[in-house]
Amino acid sequence: MSSSKLISTILFSVTLSLILQSSFGADPLFHFCSNSENFTAKSPYETNLKTLINSLIYKTPSTGFGIGSVGQYQNQPAYGLALCRGDVSTSECKTCVSEASKEIQNRCEYNKGAIIWYDYCMFKYLDSDFFGKIDNTNKFYMWNLNNVSDPATFNYNTKELLSQLAQKASVNTKLYATGEVKLDESKKLYGLTQCTRELSSIDCKKCLDDAISELPNCCDGKEGGRVVGGSCNFRYEIYPFVKE
Ligand SMILES: *[C@@H]1O[C@H](CO)[C@@H](O)[C@H](O)[C@H]1NC(C)=O
Ligand SMILES: *[C@@H]1O[C@H](CO)[C@@H](O)[C@H](O)[C@H]1NC(C)=O
């Protein structure tokens, strides 16, 4: 391939990925359908779940967090929550949560429980009360393919920054924190930590510390990475990725 062809190919890919990211056809990052039994069409669970989903779509955007349950104890109740990233606007949150609610139902049509994540939000429901408990079941990693030149120092700085942000998030009313640290004259490292808001401060910190302990498995020497779970997540990059 000639170098100009190569360059135009690269430019095309860059442009395409920018378009994909800025329109909100943003793809989900990941999802899990719970492997518990399925519900059937027209069952009380389906009715409760639909009501729950609509109420989460309605109540999440104003504060960035929505939680609730629908249905009495004997009558197949559904429990759910939705959380937007701490910096996203009400309208972005609304778009993300409505998209997530549709997509999760497509992907896990008759599952009693499911969870889906996007850059801007997550959406989760289950047929049992999971509120205030750290979710150790649903978890995934993402990482930047680029390697850093000095992994030992970089890994140390990453762990330091994220640990500080775990503490900061755990005492923040939104259980959310962002921050940055200077790596050298021209480079900075940017981080974000967030928990679902029904967790206690102590459990938020614990959830994030556990996630941070997975850095060596997830993102060793990588320029960026995330550990994303049902109760908390972190992300770091060498470029700014949250709005001020
Ligand atoms: C539940 O439904 C899905 C399709 O939505 C199907 O693939 C799966 O096998 C079902 N699971 C059980 C336990 O019936
Ligand atoms: C990063 O390092 C890994 C392991 O050494 C290697 O397989 C990979 O190709 C490197 N990635 C890039 C983008 O150079």
Topology record:
Blueprint: H1 3-22, E1 30-33, H2 44-63, E2 65-70, E3 78-84, H3 90-107, E4 114-117, E5 121-126, E6 139-143, H4 151-170, E7 176-182, E8 188-195, H5 201-212, H6 215-219, E9 225-229, E10 232-237
Helix pairs in contact: 2-3, 4-5
One 2-acetamido-2-deoxy-beta-D-glucopyranose (NAG) is lined by residues 37-38, 109-110.
Structural descriptors:
Killer Toxin P4, Chain A, binds 2-acetamido-2-deoxy-beta-D-glucopyranose, GNK2_sf, elongated, signal, 2 domains, alpha+beta, 39% helix, 6 helices, 244 residues
Structure overview:
The chain is an alpha+beta fold and 244 residues long. The chain has two domains: 25-126, Gnk2 domain, C-X8-C-X2-C motif (Killer Toxin P4, Chain A, 2-Layer Sandwich); 139-237, 2-Layer Sandwich (Killer Toxin P4, Chain A). Helix content is 39%, strand content 24%. Helix 2 packs antiparallel against helix 3. Bound molecules: 2-acetamido-2-deoxy-beta-D-glucopyranose (2 copies). Residues 37-38, 109-110 line the site of one 2-acetamido-2-deoxy-beta-D-glucopyranose. The site of one 2-acetamido-2-deoxy-beta-D-glucopyranose (NAG) has 3 residues, from loops.
